[in-house]
Amino acid sequence: MKTLGDALRIFGVCLLLSLCSGRVQATLILNDTFSDGSRTNQSLPNSADWVVGGPSNNATVKNGVLNFADSSGKKATTMAYFNTVDLKVGESLKLSFNYSFAQVANADNSFMFGLYDAGTSYQTKDAVGFNNSIFNNYTGYAASGVFGTNPAGPGLDHIEARTQTGHDLLDLSTYTEGNTFTQSGAATPGQTYTAWMQISRTAEGVIVSSTIGNTSFSQTYSSGMFTQFNAVGIFSNGDAGSFNLDNVKLDYSSTPEPSSIFALMLLGVTVFGRVLTDWIRRVLPQVLRVAA
Predict the structure, then answer these.
(1) What is the DSSP letter of 40?
(2) Alpha carbon distance 263, 268 (integer Å)
(3) How large is the C-alpha radius of gyration of the chain?
């Protein structure tokens, strides 16, 4: 590195690396469109094995959509598993899916979905339900809401952390509610909506954000955080008739910490400065002699 051109090239490379490092890097963990006509084919990321809590014949794939038939109030509950993700600072998981109901219900928490850490305790059979010892130590976060007009007033949406042990994954007494948010409007029967939940880890804690229907909300956890996940669950209490589920997507993304980006830029500036100083020390006297 004896020329100013060398210094400029090194500085340019470091600057380019720092800019590239600052970009969000995304990985698709799950993208189930049910286009294969199956809900039991585990072939990530394009297909997952969706275990259902009710009878197997109550949940079938029709025209590229997972449909839970209206069967006298039976719950539309399903769960799938993926490779464990342990979020570090700057990383996040985002779950999104399309859904529609034949009718809307006014019961609180009539719809819930979440991301969980199942450890190695997987539910592998249909029609067993989500109330058994397998779920005793599941941890994670869930979002829930109401779809109809609540007779007592506007419906509420919730973010909850599963902090208590319990056999029933759907028992809200095993969750600690982070906050409640007033619903902005009731859902329309038969209309397709997109729901999502994102879990982001920052230096300050974990931020859980979600959207249900027309309402968006978030909650920050600065202690007692959960950062490891390998299961996704989507649940309805069955009061809304038939339920359609489609385009279930789970994205992992990471953004390097600002300190690492700054370090690369600092390296470029440092190298440039040293070479420039050396160049001035060697070349400037010669320039001055020629000028004299």
Answers:
(1) S
(2) 9
(3) 26
Q: Of 9-18, 125-134, 230-239, which range is least confident?
A: 9-18
Residue pair 96/194 in contact by the 8 Å Cβ criterion: yes
Q: Would you call 57 helix, strand, or coil by DSSP? A: helix
pLDDT at 179: 78
Q: Is the model's pTM score more than 0.85?
A: no
What fold characterizes domain 24-255? Jelly Rolls (2.60.120)
Count of Cβ atoms closer than 10 Å to residue 64 Cβ: 12
Residues 6+ apart with CB under 8 A from 177: 158, 159, 160
3-state class percentages of the chain: helix first, strand second, coil last, to nearest 5: 20, 40, 40
- Residue 133: left (phi > 0), alpha (psi -120 to 50), or beta? alpha
* Lookup: tokens for 130: 């989500």
Six-digit token string for 15: 């600057």
Q: Please state, in angstroms and rounded to a whole number, the distance separating the CA atoms of residues 98 and 144.
A: 15
Q: Which of 81, 114, 85 has the alpha carbon at shortest distance from 26? A: 85
pLDDT at 176 over 90: yes
**How many CA atoms lie less than 13 Å away from 189 in the CB half-sphere?**
11
* Residue bearing tokens 């399903």: 78
pLDDT the model gives residue 102: 83
Domain boundaries defined on the chain: 4-14+259-291, 24-255
Using alpha carbons, select from 89, 93, 80 the residue that is nearest to residue 42: 80
Adjacency order of strands within the sheet including 228-236: 51-52, 76-86, 228-236, 111-117, 139-145, 156-162, 175-182
